[in-house]
Amino acid sequence: MFENSSNINLTEDNETIVWKYLDLSKFLDMLLSKKLFMSRSDKFEDQYEGTFSEPTYEEIKKIAINNPEFLDYYKSHREKVVISSWHANEYESFAMWQIFTKNNEGIAIQSTTGRLKEALQPETKFKQYIGEVNYIDYKKEHIPFEDMFFPFLFKRKSFQYEHEIRIISDVSEQNLKLRDGLKIDVDIEKLIKKIYIHPKSENWYKNLVIEMVHRLGYTIEIEKSDLESDILI
Protein backbone atom coordinates (compact mmCIF):
# COMPACT_ATOMS: atom_id res chain seq x y z
CA MET A 1 0.00 0.00 0.00
CA PHE A 2 1.22 3.49 -0.74
CA GLU A 3 2.05 5.76 2.16
CA ASN A 4 2.04 8.72 -0.21
CA SER A 5 2.66 9.57 -3.84
CA SER A 6 6.40 9.80 -3.27
CA ASN A 7 6.49 6.00 -3.38
CA ILE A 8 5.88 6.27 -7.12
CA ASN A 9 8.51 7.67 -9.42
CA LEU A 10 6.99 9.08 -12.59
CA THR A 11 8.21 10.91 -15.60
CA GLU A 12 7.77 14.63 -14.94
CA ASP A 13 4.78 15.00 -17.27
CA ASN A 14 1.74 13.23 -15.80
CA GLU A 15 -0.08 13.81 -19.10
CA THR A 16 2.26 11.59 -21.11
CA ILE A 17 -0.02 9.31 -23.16
CA VAL A 18 0.62 5.58 -22.80
CA TRP A 19 -0.91 2.54 -24.45
CA LYS A 20 -1.31 -1.16 -23.75
CA TYR A 21 -2.17 -3.45 -26.67
CA LEU A 22 -3.72 -6.79 -25.73
CA ASP A 23 -6.11 -9.49 -26.90
CA LEU A 24 -9.77 -9.62 -25.91
CA SER A 25 -9.40 -12.44 -23.37
CA LYS A 26 -6.75 -10.54 -21.38
CA PHE A 27 -8.79 -7.36 -21.60
CA LEU A 28 -11.92 -9.14 -20.36
CA ASP A 29 -9.96 -10.71 -17.50
CA MET A 30 -8.82 -7.22 -16.48
CA LEU A 31 -12.37 -5.85 -16.50
CA LEU A 32 -13.83 -8.80 -14.57
CA SER A 33 -11.08 -9.10 -11.96
CA LYS A 34 -10.37 -5.35 -11.71
CA LYS A 35 -6.75 -6.31 -11.57
CA LEU A 36 -3.71 -5.60 -13.70
CA PHE A 37 -1.47 -8.52 -14.62
CA MET A 38 2.25 -7.98 -14.08
CA SER A 39 4.68 -10.42 -15.64
CA ARG A 40 7.69 -11.88 -13.86
CA SER A 41 10.71 -10.03 -15.22
CA ASP A 42 12.60 -13.15 -16.30
CA LYS A 43 9.62 -14.37 -18.35
CA PHE A 44 9.91 -11.63 -20.97
CA GLU A 45 11.03 -12.48 -24.49
CA ASP A 46 14.15 -10.36 -23.99
CA GLN A 47 16.54 -12.58 -22.01
CA TYR A 48 18.54 -9.51 -20.99
CA GLU A 49 15.56 -8.21 -18.99
CA GLY A 50 16.75 -7.12 -15.55
CA THR A 51 20.37 -8.04 -16.27
CA PHE A 52 23.36 -5.72 -16.50
CA SER A 53 25.41 -4.27 -19.30
CA GLU A 54 28.97 -5.59 -19.71
CA PRO A 55 30.70 -2.64 -17.95
CA THR A 56 28.33 -2.93 -14.99
CA TYR A 57 28.71 -6.71 -14.82
CA GLU A 58 32.50 -6.40 -14.67
CA GLU A 59 32.14 -3.92 -11.83
CA ILE A 60 29.77 -6.22 -9.91
CA LYS A 61 32.09 -9.21 -10.39
CA LYS A 62 34.90 -7.28 -8.66
CA ILE A 63 32.60 -6.50 -5.73
CA ALA A 64 31.48 -10.14 -5.58
CA ILE A 65 35.01 -11.58 -5.30
CA ASN A 66 34.82 -11.38 -1.51
CA ASN A 67 31.04 -11.66 -1.40
CA PRO A 68 29.75 -14.25 -3.90
CA GLU A 69 26.24 -14.02 -2.46
CA PHE A 70 26.06 -10.47 -3.84
CA LEU A 71 26.07 -11.73 -7.44
CA ASP A 72 23.77 -14.67 -6.68
CA TYR A 73 21.23 -12.28 -5.19
CA TYR A 74 21.10 -10.18 -8.36
CA LYS A 75 20.56 -13.29 -10.47
CA SER A 76 17.71 -14.65 -8.33
CA HIS A 77 16.13 -11.24 -7.75
CA ARG A 78 14.65 -11.22 -11.28
CA GLU A 79 12.17 -13.88 -10.12
CA LYS A 80 10.82 -11.47 -7.50
CA VAL A 81 10.28 -8.47 -9.77
CA VAL A 82 7.11 -8.07 -11.83
CA ILE A 83 6.47 -5.61 -14.64
CA SER A 84 3.55 -4.11 -16.55
CA SER A 85 4.72 -2.57 -19.82
CA TRP A 86 3.13 0.45 -21.53
CA HIS A 87 3.96 2.11 -24.84
CA ALA A 88 4.47 5.89 -24.70
CA ASN A 89 3.12 7.56 -27.82
CA GLU A 90 0.88 10.51 -28.57
CA TYR A 91 -0.85 8.44 -31.27
CA GLU A 92 -1.82 4.85 -31.99
CA SER A 93 0.98 2.69 -33.31
CA PHE A 94 0.44 0.46 -36.34
CA ALA A 95 3.55 -1.50 -35.32
CA MET A 96 2.17 -2.19 -31.82
CA TRP A 97 -1.09 -3.51 -33.27
CA GLN A 98 0.96 -5.87 -35.46
CA ILE A 99 3.21 -7.08 -32.64
CA PHE A 100 0.74 -7.54 -29.78
CA THR A 101 -2.53 -8.58 -31.47
CA LYS A 102 -3.48 -11.35 -33.89
CA ASN A 103 -6.13 -12.11 -36.50
CA ASN A 104 -7.20 -8.45 -36.80
CA GLU A 105 -8.61 -8.60 -33.29
CA GLY A 106 -7.51 -6.91 -30.10
CA ILE A 107 -7.82 -3.87 -27.88
CA ALA A 108 -5.67 -0.84 -27.20
CA ILE A 109 -6.03 0.83 -23.83
CA GLN A 110 -5.14 4.50 -23.77
CA SER A 111 -4.05 5.99 -20.45
CA THR A 112 -1.60 8.57 -19.09
CA THR A 113 1.25 8.38 -16.61
CA GLY A 114 -0.90 10.35 -14.16
CA ARG A 115 -3.77 7.87 -14.53
CA LEU A 116 -1.42 4.95 -13.89
CA LYS A 117 -0.41 6.56 -10.64
CA GLU A 118 -4.01 7.24 -9.55
CA ALA A 119 -5.25 3.78 -10.57
CA LEU A 120 -2.61 2.05 -8.43
CA GLN A 121 -3.36 3.98 -5.25
CA PRO A 122 -6.26 1.95 -3.73
CA GLU A 123 -5.23 -0.82 -1.34
CA THR A 124 -2.13 -1.90 -3.23
CA LYS A 125 -0.10 -4.45 -1.28
CA PHE A 126 3.10 -3.81 -3.18
CA LYS A 127 5.09 -0.64 -3.64
CA GLN A 128 5.08 0.49 -7.25
CA TYR A 129 7.78 2.23 -9.22
CA ILE A 130 6.77 3.85 -12.50
CA GLY A 131 9.59 4.88 -14.78
CA GLU A 132 10.68 5.40 -18.35
CA VAL A 133 12.92 2.77 -19.93
CA ASN A 134 16.36 3.88 -21.12
CA TYR A 135 17.79 2.24 -24.25
CA ILE A 136 21.56 1.78 -24.21
CA ASP A 137 24.47 -0.10 -25.75
CA TYR A 138 24.96 -3.07 -23.40
CA LYS A 139 28.54 -3.56 -24.59
CA LYS A 140 29.66 -0.03 -23.76
CA GLU A 141 27.30 1.79 -21.41
CA HIS A 142 26.95 1.51 -17.65
CA ILE A 143 23.77 0.66 -15.71
CA PRO A 144 23.65 2.01 -12.14
CA PHE A 145 22.90 -0.61 -9.49
CA GLU A 146 22.60 1.38 -6.28
CA ASP A 147 18.80 1.16 -6.63
CA MET A 148 17.31 -2.33 -7.11
CA PHE A 149 14.82 -1.01 -9.66
CA PHE A 150 17.44 0.48 -11.99
CA PRO A 151 18.35 -2.72 -13.89
CA PHE A 152 14.70 -3.02 -14.90
CA LEU A 153 14.65 0.46 -16.42
CA PHE A 154 17.29 -0.28 -19.07
CA LYS A 155 17.02 -2.24 -22.29
CA ARG A 156 19.10 -2.75 -25.42
CA LYS A 157 18.88 -0.16 -28.19
CA SER A 158 17.27 -2.72 -30.51
CA PHE A 159 14.07 -2.36 -28.41
CA GLN A 160 13.97 1.42 -28.73
CA TYR A 161 10.83 1.27 -30.90
CA GLU A 162 8.85 0.23 -27.79
CA HIS A 163 9.16 3.69 -26.13
CA GLU A 164 8.34 1.86 -22.93
CA ILE A 165 7.08 3.17 -19.64
CA ARG A 166 6.69 0.45 -17.06
CA ILE A 167 5.19 -0.24 -13.68
CA ILE A 168 7.57 -2.30 -11.55
CA SER A 169 6.93 -4.14 -8.27
CA ASP A 170 9.38 -5.96 -6.04
CA VAL A 171 7.67 -8.70 -4.03
CA SER A 172 10.79 -9.96 -2.25
CA GLU A 173 9.48 -8.94 1.15
CA GLN A 174 6.22 -10.88 0.62
CA ASN A 175 8.07 -14.17 0.15
CA LEU A 176 5.88 -15.07 -2.79
CA LYS A 177 6.68 -17.80 -5.28
CA LEU A 178 5.57 -16.50 -8.64
CA ARG A 179 4.92 -18.71 -11.61
CA ASP A 180 4.34 -16.26 -14.47
CA GLY A 181 3.54 -13.11 -12.52
CA LEU A 182 0.77 -11.70 -10.35
CA LYS A 183 -2.31 -9.51 -10.53
CA ILE A 184 -2.55 -6.28 -8.57
CA ASP A 185 -5.64 -4.26 -7.66
CA VAL A 186 -6.37 -1.25 -9.87
CA ASP A 187 -9.17 1.25 -10.33
CA ILE A 188 -10.23 0.41 -13.90
CA GLU A 189 -12.13 3.66 -14.49
CA LYS A 190 -9.07 5.67 -13.51
CA LEU A 191 -6.65 3.40 -15.35
CA ILE A 192 -8.36 3.52 -18.74
CA LYS A 193 -8.95 6.84 -20.46
CA LYS A 194 -10.20 5.37 -23.75
CA ILE A 195 -10.55 2.00 -25.43
CA TYR A 196 -9.62 1.54 -29.09
CA ILE A 197 -10.75 -1.51 -31.06
CA HIS A 198 -8.51 -3.12 -33.68
CA PRO A 199 -8.78 -1.07 -36.90
CA LYS A 200 -9.19 -4.16 -39.09
CA SER A 201 -11.74 -5.97 -36.92
CA GLU A 202 -15.20 -6.94 -38.18
CA ASN A 203 -18.31 -5.00 -37.13
CA TRP A 204 -19.60 -7.93 -35.03
CA TYR A 205 -16.33 -7.84 -33.06
CA LYS A 206 -16.57 -4.10 -32.47
CA ASN A 207 -20.19 -4.48 -31.29
CA LEU A 208 -19.16 -7.33 -28.98
CA VAL A 209 -16.51 -5.20 -27.29
CA ILE A 210 -18.89 -2.26 -26.86
CA GLU A 211 -21.66 -4.44 -25.41
CA MET A 212 -19.26 -6.27 -23.11
CA VAL A 213 -17.85 -3.04 -21.63
CA HIS A 214 -21.33 -1.58 -21.09
CA ARG A 215 -22.80 -4.78 -19.58
CA LEU A 216 -20.01 -4.85 -17.03
CA GLY A 217 -21.06 -1.38 -15.93
CA TYR A 218 -18.09 0.62 -17.18
CA THR A 219 -18.54 4.10 -18.61
CA ILE A 220 -15.20 4.19 -20.43
CA GLU A 221 -15.19 5.93 -23.79
CA ILE A 222 -14.74 3.59 -26.76
CA GLU A 223 -13.11 5.16 -29.80
CA LYS A 224 -12.91 4.22 -33.45
CA SER A 225 -9.29 3.56 -34.37
CA ASP A 226 -7.59 6.47 -36.12
CA LEU A 227 -6.09 3.91 -38.49
CA GLU A 228 -9.61 3.08 -39.67
CA SER A 229 -10.29 6.58 -41.03
CA ASP A 230 -11.87 6.83 -44.47
CA ILE A 231 -9.59 7.82 -47.32
CA LEU A 232 -10.28 11.29 -48.67
CA ILE A 233 -9.78 11.73 -52.41
Keywords:
233 residues; alpha+beta; nine-stranded mixed β-sheet; two-stranded parallel ribbon; 7 helices; disordered N terminus
**In angstroms, what separates the terminal alpha carbons?**
55 Å
State the low-pLDDT regions, or none: 1-9
Report the total helices: 7
Q: What percentage of the residues does DSSP assign to strands (E)? A: 15-25%
Q: Name the helix and strand elements from N-terminus to C-terminus, one letter apiece.
A: EHEHHEHEHEEEEEHEHE
The total beta strand count reads 11
Average pLDDT value? Answer: 86
The secondary structure category is: alpha+beta
Task: Label the overall shape.
Answer: elongated
Helix amount: 25-40%
Total discrete domains: 1
- Major sheet size, sense and barrel closure: 9 strands, mixed
Rounded Rg: 19 Å
Report on this model:
This protein has 233 residues and is α+β, with helices and mostly antiparallel strands. It has one domain (5-228). Helices cover 27% and strands 24% of the residues. The protein contains 7 helices and 11 strands. The protein has helices at residues 24-33, 54-64, 68-77, 94-100, 113-120, 188-191, 203-215; strands at residues 17-22, 35-40, 81-88, 107-112, 128-132, 134-136, 154-156, 164-170, 181-185, 194-197, 221-223. The strands form 2 sheets. Strands 1, 2, 3, 4, 5, 8, 9, 10 and 11 form a 9-stranded mixed sheet that branches. A two-stranded parallel ribbon has the order 6-7. Helix 7 links the parallel strand 10 and strand 11. Helix 2 (54-64) packs across helix 3 (68-77).
